[in-house]
């Protein structure tokens, strides 16, 4: 048994499997099972161990902005500036704590969500018993019944009409016939191993017994899970952009610091005070509240999205989805319902008229009743009235809708026309036949692939009469078959034959009388229509990636308006013939990839990423998992998704609804815009601080602001309004513009706004300093401090909207902005009016004239922003007129 991992079980006789696994027909003893469980471990996929506290801490502090803040804190301490040092260090600690707590919360939510794929299993250990599936071991004998999920990889030892749906592995909804007594060659492909049943598959029909040959990570599911370990963790767009901002500010900060230090030395100022000014500039150039503010905004968004059935595992995933330019979606179970549905049929004169009947409008007549009789009797599915569902193979379950539509009683039909024989479905024949006692006659009903069935028919049922099936009539049938195929329908044909001498008459499937055809489809999810439409309006391209046939995939894609005129559809075979360069060029027009493998999906994702697309990948099966992790954001299904897919994803849809993605995209865009507002808000203040200190140094003035003043403005009076901007509601047209694909957090227009507003606030700050300095230095510094802080507070109201005037913008939509501004104003009042704190902050009391001057200057900052909005509205109106 030690070499069980290297065995090719599908090519071994059942007796050899027993021998190699030291098992028997009665299974293992309890003692042996416990021994093997201890040696081999539980039958479950191995999870990555949770990140240690030190690893989480490293993630939070390994950032250029944090490095600069830490250096500033240490330097301030060395210079005995303990207030500045402690405040800066507290910033670092608070930011790290927020990130760590949120990571832990997200992991706890995921752990609560996880369900074992097959929670229980029927196992034969001398006698039949039910045990947790995770306790299965190699050599156990497992019993499978209809509706069971296969708990481990099994070599089948018994089977009866067994059909297994392997959609989690292959992505296909069609069930596969399994036979225990088949002996296959060693080089048989996984999809052809019909004497095996693989973990995570579902039994749709029949029953079987199998011996466990692989468990846990040794199963086919586990092997795919290992592919995930080969995928490197990728940086999200937000992380890249924040890092870009940090690097740019780092370089600017170093240049300005050295320049100011050099200018001070040229002016002959003492090095130590000048070094403190340089430290102040280093502090002012870094938006200290940015990491914490961005983390808090995304954390709040995670809570909102959880209420909308979207579980976010990583904070940046919220913003990433908002910036997605392409969504690659699996068809089966994601865009479609993973449930076969009968939609159209043709009988009697429909073939000569070349018309199809809709199941919804079907009326009972002789022809339709005969078709329904064949579909109901030549069928192993059944109604479960207690649970109001149909049990059995999805295709056969769909056929029973004919019985329901014509208001026929299935139980009575099967009792009246009892089955007395059958010839089970065979993948070579592609047919299934059952024999029934119909009144005093024995009748065989046959269903299956149309091409196979027609070749065995010599008559057709027209006007309840059996007439010759001529070549013309066959051509008419095939023409309707092609019409159905173009509508993505899977076509099944039905025929019958009266038996004169059964069971001696063994030619059940010869000289048949053709009855009619039905068309079945795995229908699109209803909510997927609106979801795809909304994504298109938002400038997001939807690509269907499926293992299904190309024609079927195109038809479904057309229904959902994914595939449109001028688009391309590529099959896996065609994809394999393309070079990476050819794929990159063609990818711009491809909206459907059909008959693809998991490795193909990875290649598609990588191609889109090379084209600078921000890629989201949705899926629920194991075969989707490698691509889920390779994409910028992977979206797994919470209900029907496999554990492997959930582990690989960045976001889990708890309701498996494609429409939830729309809400997530909207929330992601809201977060992105709000983070833009935050950075806009903080950087304007920081630019004002830099310019104020730089200009003062160049002109050899006394410093208008101290390091402590800058820290207080950036944290106590700027952080709260910034956080409030982070919870601004989404604008009405947020899903009407294309995703932002620039390498930074701002478009050119935003950069101009930030620079112009920063320069203007610096002008106001220096003006206040100049007016106050006419009295004394302390008054000038106090007025500069007050103007800078109040400019920040007032500007926050104007930033609520980037276009609408403050008079038309409903501030009541975000009461937190009002509350935070009041709190920040109170904080400033405490500092400015408390004598002890005035001394600590090197401030002084001000006169009424001073305060009126401060209020007048600060109000100009809001007026400046509103004038900029007027210009923007005029440009937008002009653009609309030109267009």
UniProtKB/TrEMBL annotation:
An example Gene Ontology molecular-function term: ATP binding
Known Gene3D superfamilies for this protein? Answer: Calcium-transporting ATPase, cytoplasmic domain N (3.40.1110.10), Calcium-transporting ATPase, cytoplasmic transduction domain A (2.70.150.10), Calcium-transporting ATPase, transmembrane domain (1.20.1110.10), HAD superfamily/HAD-like (3.40.50.1000)
List where the protein spans the membrane. 85-101, 248-269, 275-300, 678-699, 705-727, 754-771, 777-795, 816-836, 848-867
> Start and end of every Cation-transporting P-type ATPase N-terminal domain?
8-81
Sorted alphabetically, the keyword list is: ATP-binding, Cell membrane, Magnesium, Membrane, Nucleotide-binding, Phosphoprotein, Translocase, Transmembrane, Transmembrane helix
Q: Where in the cell is it found?
A: Cell membrane
Primary localization: membrane
- PROSITE patterns assigned to the protein according to its UniProt record, in alphabetical order: ATPASE_E1_E2 (PS00154)
Q: How does it sit in the membrane?
A: Multi-pass membrane protein
GO CC terms, sorted: plasma membrane
* Annotated family: Belongs to the cation transport ATPase (P-type) (TC 3.A.3) family. Type IIA subfamily.
Please identify the protein, giving its name as recorded: Cation-transporting ATPase
Give the organism the record lists: Lactobacillus hominis DSM 23910 = CRBIP 24.179
């Amino acid at each position: 048994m030690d070499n069980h991992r290297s065995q090719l079980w599908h090519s071994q006789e059942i007796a050899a499997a027993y021998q190699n696994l030291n098992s028997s027909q009665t299974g293992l003893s309890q003692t042996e099972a416990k021994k093997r469980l201890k040696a081999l471990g539980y039958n479950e996929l191995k999870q990555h161990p949770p990140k240690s506290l030190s690893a989480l801490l490293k993630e939070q502090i390994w950032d250029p902005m944090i490095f600069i803040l830490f250096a500033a804190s240490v330097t301030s301490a060395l210079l005995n500036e303990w207030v500045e040092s402690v405040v800066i260090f507290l910033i670092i600690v608070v930011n790290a704590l927020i990130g760590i707590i949120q990571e832990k919360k997200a992991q706890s939510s995921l752990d609560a969500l996880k369900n074992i794929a097959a929670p229980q299993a029927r196992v034969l250990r001398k006698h039949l018993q039910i045990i947790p599936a995770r306790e299965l071991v190699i050599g156990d004998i497992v019993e499978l019944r209809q509706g069971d999920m296969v708990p481990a990889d099994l070599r089948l030892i018994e089977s009866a009409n067994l059909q297994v749906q392997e959609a989690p592995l292959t992505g296909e909804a069609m069930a596969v016939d399994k036979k225990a007594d088949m002996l296959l060659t060693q080089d048989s492909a996984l999809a052809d191993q019909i004497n095996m049943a693989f973990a995570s598959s579902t039994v749709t029909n029949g029953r079987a017994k199998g011996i466990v040959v692989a468990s846990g990570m040794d199963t086919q599911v586990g092997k795919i899970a290992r592919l995930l370990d080969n995928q490197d963790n990728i940086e999200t767009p937000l992380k890249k952009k924040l890092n870009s901002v940090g690097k740019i500010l780092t370089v600017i900060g170093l240049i300005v610091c050295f320049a100011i230090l050099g200018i001070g030395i040229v002016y002959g100022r003492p090095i130590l005070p000048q070094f403190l000014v340089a430290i102040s500039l280093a502090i002012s150039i870094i938006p200290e509240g940015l990491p914490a503010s961005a983390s808090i905004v995304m954390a709040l968004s995670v809570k909102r999205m959880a209420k909308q059935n979207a579980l976010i595992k990583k904070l940046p995933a919220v913003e990433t989805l908002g910036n997605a330019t392409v969504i690659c979606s699996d068809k089966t179970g994601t865009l479609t319902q993973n449930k076969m549905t009968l939609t159209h049929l043709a009988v009697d004169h429909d073939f000569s008229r070349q018309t199809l009947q809709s199941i919804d409008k079907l009326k009972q007549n002789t022809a339709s009743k005969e078709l329904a009789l064949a579909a109901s009797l030549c069928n192993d599915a059944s109604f479960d009235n207690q649970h109001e569902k149909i049990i059995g193979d999805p295709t056969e379950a769909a056929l029973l809708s004919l019985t329901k539509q014509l208001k026929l009683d299935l139980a009575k039909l099967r009792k009246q026309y009892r089955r007395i024989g059958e010839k089970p479905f065979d993948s070579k024949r592609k047919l299934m036949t059952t024999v029934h006692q119909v009144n005093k006659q024995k009748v065989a009903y046959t269903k299956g692939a149309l091409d196979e069935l027609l070749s065995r028919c010599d008559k057709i049922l027209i006007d309840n009469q059996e007439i010759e099936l001529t070549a013309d009539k066959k051509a008419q049938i095939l023409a309707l078959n092609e019409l159905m195929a173009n509508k993505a329908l899977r076509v099944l044909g039905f025929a019958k034959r009266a038996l004169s001498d059964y069971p001696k008459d063994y030619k059940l499937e010869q000289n048949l009388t053709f009855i009619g055809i039905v068309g079945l489809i795995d229908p699109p999810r209803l909510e997927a229509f609106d979801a795809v439409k909304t994504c298109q309006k938002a400038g997001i391209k939807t690509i269907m990636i499926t293992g299904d046939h190309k024609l079927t995939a195109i038809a479904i894609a057309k229904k959902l308006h994914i595939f449109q005129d001028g688009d391309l559809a590529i099959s896996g075979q065609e994809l394999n013939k393309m070079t990476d360069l050819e794929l990159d060029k063609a990818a711009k027009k491809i909206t459907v990839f059909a008959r693809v493998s998991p490795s193909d999906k990875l290649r598609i994702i990588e191609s889109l990423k090379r084209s600078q697309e921000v890629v989201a990948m949705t899926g629920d099966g194991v075969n989707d998992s490698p691509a889920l992790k390779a994409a910028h954001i992977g979206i797994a299904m919470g209900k029907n998704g496999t554990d492997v897919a959930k582990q690989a994803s960045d976001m889990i849809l708890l309701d498996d609804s494609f429409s939830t993605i729309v809400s997530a995209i909207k929330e992601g865009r809201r977060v992105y815009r709000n983070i833009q507002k935050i950075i806009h808000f903080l950087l304007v203040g920081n630019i004002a601080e830099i310019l104020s200190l730089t200009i003062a140094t160049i002109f050899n003035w006394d410093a208008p602001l101290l390091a402590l003043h800058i820290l207080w403005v950036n944290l106590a009076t700027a952080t709260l309004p910034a956080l409030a901007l982070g919870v601004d509601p989404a604008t009405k047209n947020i899903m009407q513009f294309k995703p932002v694909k620039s390498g930074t957090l701002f478009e050119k227009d935003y950069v101009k706004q930030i620079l112009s507003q920063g320069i203007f606030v610096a002008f106001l700050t220096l003006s206040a300093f100049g007016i106050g300095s006419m009295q004394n230095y302390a008054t000038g510094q106090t007025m500069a401090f007050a103007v800078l802080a109040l400019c920040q507070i007032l500007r926050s109201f104007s930033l609520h909207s980037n276009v609408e005037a403050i008079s038309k913008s409903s501030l009541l939509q975000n009461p937190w902005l009002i509350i935070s501004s009041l709190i920040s104003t109170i904080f400033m009042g405490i500092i400015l009016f408390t004598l002890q704190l005035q001394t600590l902050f090197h401030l002084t009391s001000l006169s009424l004239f001073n305060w009126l001057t401060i209020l007048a200057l600060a109000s100009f900052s809001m007026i400046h922003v509103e004038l900029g909005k007027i210009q923007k509205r005029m440009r937008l109106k002009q653009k609309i007129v030109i267009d």
